[in-house]
Design goal:
Layout lengths: L1 H13 L3 H17 L1 H21 L9 H31 L2 E2 L24 H8 L6 H4 L5 H12 L9 H15 L3 E4 L2 E7 L2 H7 L13 H22 L1 H17 L14 H8 L5 E4 L4 H11 L11 E2 H15 L3 H8 L1 E5 L23
Parallel strand pairs: 4-6
Antiparallel strand pairs: 1-5, 2-3
Helix pairs in contact: 1-2, 1-3, 2-3, 2-4, 7-10, 8-10, 10-11, 12-13
């Protein structure tokens, strides 16, 4: 949805119409239904394009002119009705009940060399493992290699920008540089090492827009860098193809190189083992929830699809402070062997714990349903 929104928004600015305004709003709503990060990036990209168009037209108040006022008004109106409640609810929740689980912007920043050196998802990743194994971000987020082929075309278009017939070419470079700098986070990282003496402007963006602190993953802004690079490369390939026979051969060479550089590793397939206690839980009466103190939260959610009973703990990206405190309370009740409160207060009936844990032996102690050497 990101490229489609950017395209629609571009058309709204350059050839305004109510129809394209509706299309822009609908695609932006589709973005927020997928990801809050991407929604924010699209809003920032839209703002940059708004400023660019105003500077280009030498009229920073162009959006107040009749030509743009009605389409932009329709766009804002639809957005307030649709995406508005989602954004407002998120901000209100964070203000009333601050969210936990925020990433560290320092650790989740782009390494300066990551766009140049292939990451852990490359087919020949073992060749570059000395680099990506040193990064503080996991390979799923740090694998943002742009490729020598793409960097070559970016350089070519910039050197030949005077011959480019697309008026927005300079804007796409500005957008690319802006998001690239922001993705570096508050502190520069080179080869996995933090350079604390080199402060970057990401902190200013957090100061201007405090809700950004809920994200804490600057490296994800590389998605907009890739989009900007793709648009510029489209211009570059067109220029090369129109240039000469040599240009067409160069395009073929670049495409072959790009294919090698972007060749992904096969996605590993695995079948997580299902512990015997999960099979037992599936056969038990469905009259209460489960406290699983053995499996990590993410795995517990997978196992829940098998035993199909409600669980006390799970994993979501962010949890409100009140939920975090409630989880602590439940875990303390388990440590205190207060089973009556767990059942009567929380309707939790089944406790899964390590075999070596001591279970209280009194009138309130739970009945043993299953036991093996581990659980």
């Amino acid at each position: 949805w990101i490229p489609l929104f950017v395209l629609c928004w571009y058309v709204v600015l350059t050839k305004p119409s109510i129809l394209m305004a509706i299309a822009s709003a609908v695609t932006l709503v589709a973005v927020i239904l997928c990801d809050y990060y991407y929604f924010f990036y699209c809003v920032v990209m839209g703002g940059l394009m708004l400023v660019w168009y105003g500077v280009q037209q030498r009229d920073l108040l162009f959006f107040l002119r009749r030509k743009h006022l009605i389409p932009l008004g329709v766009f804002v109106g639809i957005l307030l009705i649709t995406a508005g409640p989602l954004v407002f609810s998120l901000l209100l929740l964070n203000a009333r009940d601050p969210l936990w689980g925020v990433h560290s912007p320092v650790k989740s920043s782009l390494d300066l060399l990551a766009p140049i050196i292939p990451g852990g998802h490359w087919y020949f990743a073992q060749l570059t493992e000395p680099f990506w194994s040193q990064l503080t971000v996991n390979i799923h987020e740090s694998s943002v290699h742009m490729g020598i082929s793409v960097l070559f075309v970016l350089s070519y278009v910039w050197l030949k920008r005077g011959q480019c017939r697309v008026e927005s070419v300079r804007f796409w470079y500005c957008a690319l540089i802006f998001f690239a700098v922001m993705s570096l986070g508050p502190v520069l990282h080179i080869w996995g090492r933090e350079m604390p003496f080199i402060r970057l402007p990401y902190g200013w963006l957090e100061a201007v827009f405090p809700p950004l602190k809920m994200s804490g993953a600057p490296v994800r802004m590389m998605v907009m860098v890739m989009l900007s690079a793709a648009v510029i490369c489209a211009m570059g390939f067109k220029m090369l193809l129109q240039n000469s026979a040599g240009g067409r051969w160069l395009v073929l060479l670049l495409l072959v190189l790009l294919s090698v550089e972007y060749l992904p590793r096969p996605v590993p397939a695995s079948q997580p083992p299902v512990p015997p206690y999960v099979r037992i839980l599936k056969t038990l009466p469905e009259d209460g929830g489960i406290i699983d103190m053995v499996s990590r939260p993410t795995l517990a959610l997978y196992l829940q699809t098998i035993h199909e009973k409600p669980v006390a703990f799970g994993y979501v990206a962010r949890i409100p402070t009140s939920v975090r405190e409630e989880e602590r309370t439940i875990k303390q009740l388990v440590r205190d062997n207060d089973y009556s409160t767990l059942f009567c207060g929380y309707h939790l009936k089944y406790l899964v714990t390590h075999a070596e844990e001591q279970i209280a032996k009194d009138d309130q102690s739970p009945g043993l349903v299953y036991q093996d050497s581990e659980v």
